[in-house]
Each structure stands twice: as structure tokens, then as C-alpha cells.
Specification:
Helix content: 40-55%
Order of helices and strands: EEEEEHHHHHHHHHEEEHHHHHH
Radius of gyration: 29 Å
Strand content: 5-15%
Strand order of the largest sheet: 1-4-5
Structural class: mainly alpha
Largest sheet: 3 strands, antiparallel
Number of helices: 15
Oligomer: single chain
Shape: elongated
Length: 356
């Protein structure tokens, strides 16, 4: 451990100016860098006494005899205020508005229903008891509440507002494969019937299934992103994608033709799709096309099913895994092969019949 007093010096007009007040520099054994602090006194003996007191407190905190000042201050602060600080930090670090809204909503609900008011009220047993009683919530939604708690408490630990995360050992609820959140895919025949039954929305459905663009990404698509000369493609801006990375997406001949028919004379920043189909609209289109909302396994269809269908179309065409990952903009082959790939849609029967 080393500590010493000093008076800060600075240069002005080539002259060295020494501060009147004293400061100290303290570095305990094992600290990566020293701590500097102004002692706000011009008397050296008073400064020495204040530095000794700081050193003694730091050593007692290191030994666990005292609660660190930052933790002591945060312990008295209302939990709702910590949540609002966390919410503001998420916004400042560029997290999406939808994510920040959902996290704030879940944390606020937990605090209100469990009557948590300060940091020491955070309790894993109370959360487990609350989660067990939430029969109306799906398993995935319950896990989202745990994710919000873990994100908040980990942030509190990083900000020196909490000594540890009390929920780090709480297990997520296992979600059976093929049930919650597992969507089916559309066959080529399904897609043709859907676009025939909904000519007004054929444009958006076709672009979704041939590019793999998500609902929000299509909503953010601008005419200035559309390049129809030479090899038609889309130049998606980083702020418009889920991954926050700029992407180049190639267009099929049919998609490029439709875009050309609707494209304005000048490349403007107007959205390509003024309105997007709502879930209710899609359900009506499916019913009109004679496509069931749920298949024989109980898996549901949604707008995201169009993106999932792209992966299965590529598999059916014999496209290799790495190219399928690139077109789908996946960073993990596990996501492509095990989450998006629809085993039920694969030609397993025909393949089996080819066995000699």
C-alpha cells in the first residue's frame, strides 16, 4: 500500500502554478490504479489526518468490516429511482425503444406487485413465489421477467450500487421444443395461395419471404435503400436492421420488378410501405387463402413465418449452410439449422424411400 500528499501543479504563461489546497493519492495492494482525491484544506496536518482516515476506511471496506460508501448511499435510494437510472442508461447506450419499454414495464410490475421499495428488498425467493402464481403468463414471458431482473441487477453491480446479483442462480423455465414460440414454415404452395388471396399485400409478403427482412426492418425500409440498376439489391442502413449492421440484400427478378413498378421517380427517404399488415390482417389473409393458422403440431403462423420460410426454401433448393446463413443474416449455424429449419417441411419421406 502506498499513499502520499501533494499539491497539484499546472502551467500558465510558462509559469508553474501550485494549488493552495492539498490532495492525496492512495493505492492499496492489489488495486489496478491509484485513487486521487482532493482533501479541500490548505493545512498539511489537517490533510494528513484526512488522508489517514480515508486509508483506514478503504482498508476496513477491503476487509469487509464496513459497507462501501457507494453501496451505503444506494441502499437508501428508492428502487424506482434506480430503475429509472437504468432505463436512462439503456437509452443512452443505444438500446431499442421497444426493448427499453418492455424492460421498464416488467421491472415496474415486479416492484409494484412484490412491494419492493429499496435494494435490500430484492429477493429471489419472493420472485420464485410470484412466478409460480403467474398461470396466465407463458413460460417464455416468465423468462423475460427474469432476464429483466438480471439485466437490472448486473447493471447495479457494475455501477457499484449493489454488492451482488441476488437472481444470478435463479433458473429459467424450460420451454419444450415444438411448443411455445416454435413457428411453422409456409410451403411454396402456401405462399402462392397467400399472395393470390391478398393482391394488395402481395408486394410486402413477397419481399419478406425473398429477402428475409423482419417486420420492423420492412417498416423502416426507404426508397433510398433500393438499388434497381445492374444487379438489383437493397442497401439496408445499420439503424434499420436488428443487428445494427449495414446489410446488402439481393433481389429476385420478381421482387425487383414489383419494386420498379412502385418506385417513385426520385430516390426519396419515404418508406417503401406506407402501411404494414397487422396480425389480424394476416390472419384474415390466411383464412381467405385456406391456410390454417395452426398446423397439426399446434405450431402457429405469424408474419415472422415468412422469414422462417426463406430458410426452408433455401434448404429445399440445396443451398449450402454457409450461404443460407449469409442470406438469412444469421451469425450462428445453430440458429439456422435448429431454430429456423422446419424438420416437418423437409423431404424426409422421399429421402427414406431412396435407401437401397
Amino acid at each position: 500500500m502506498r499513499s502520499f500528499l501533494y499539491q497539484q501543479k499546472r502551467k500558465k504563461n510558462e509559469k508553474t502554478i501550485t494549488a493552495k489546497t492539498w490532495s492525496c493519492e492512495i493505492q492499496l495492494d492489489g488495486d489496478p490504479k491509484p485513487k486521487r482525491q482532493s482533501l479541500k484544506t490548505t493545512d498539511k496536518r489537517v490533510a494528513q489526518k484526512r488522508m489517514n482516515a480515508i486509508v483506514a476506511r478503504m482498508e476496513q471496506e477491503r476487509a469487509g468490516l464496513l459497507v462501501p460508501e457507494a453501496l451505503s448511499a444506494s441502499a437508501q435510494k428508492p428502487l424506482n429511482q434506480h430503475v429509472m437510472d437504468f432505463h436512462s442508461d439503456l437509452i443512452s447506450t443505444g438500446r431499442s425503444s421497444e426493448y427499453t419499454r418492455q424492460v421498464l414495464s416488467r421491472l415496474t410490475r415486479l416492484i409494484n406487485e412484490l412491494n419492493w421499495s429499496i435494494c435490500r428488498d430484492l429477493n429471489a425467493d419472493m420472485f420464485l413465489e410470484w412466478r409460480q402464481k403467474q398461470d396466465q403468463l407463458k413460460p417464455r414471458t416468465k423468462s423475460h421477467f427474469l432476464d429483466a431482473l438480471n439485466a437490472f441487477c448486473n447493471w447495479m453491480v457494475d455501477q457499484n450500487r449493489l454488492s451482488h446479483n441476488p437472481f444470478e442462480r435463479v433458473k429459467r423455465i424450460a420451454i419444450p421444443k415444438g411448443s411455445q414460440g416454435n413457428h411453422r414454415s409456409f410451403s411454396l404452395d402456401d405462399l402462392r395461395r397467400l399472395m393470390t388471396a391478398a393482391p394488395d399485400r402481395r408486394f410486402v409478403y413477397l419481399l419478406a419471404v425473398t429477402t428475409g427482412l423482419r417486420y420492423k426492418e420492412l417498416r423502416r425500409l426507404r426508397w433510398s435503400d433500393v438499388m434497381l440498376r445492374n444487379k438489383p439489391h437493397l442497401l439496408i442502413r445499420a439503424e434499420a436492421t436488428k443487428s445494427k449492421r449495414a446489410e446488402t440484400l439481393w433481389l429476385t427478378t420478381e421482387a425487383a420488378q414489383l419494386l420498379g413498378e412502385h418506385c417513385p421517380d426520385n430516390q426519396s427517404d419515404d418508406p417503401v410501405f406506407a402501411t404494414m399488415p397487422t396480425p389480424r390482417t394476416l390472419n384474415r389473409d390466411l383464412e381467405r387463402a385456406g391456410i390454417p393458422k395452426h398446423d397439426h403440431l399446434g405450431r402457429s403462423a405469424s408474419f415472422h413465418t415468412l422469414r422462417r420460410s426463406l430458410v426452408n426454401i433455401l434448404h429445399g433448393l440445396g443451398v449450402d449452410r454457409r450461404t443460407t446463413m449469409a442470406i438469412s443474416r444469421h451469425t450462428s449455424s445453430h440458429l439456422t439449422d435448429h431454430i429456423y429449419a422446419d424438420i416437418e417441411a423437409m423431404p424426409t419421406h422421399d429421402a427414406t424411400m431412396r435407401i437401397p
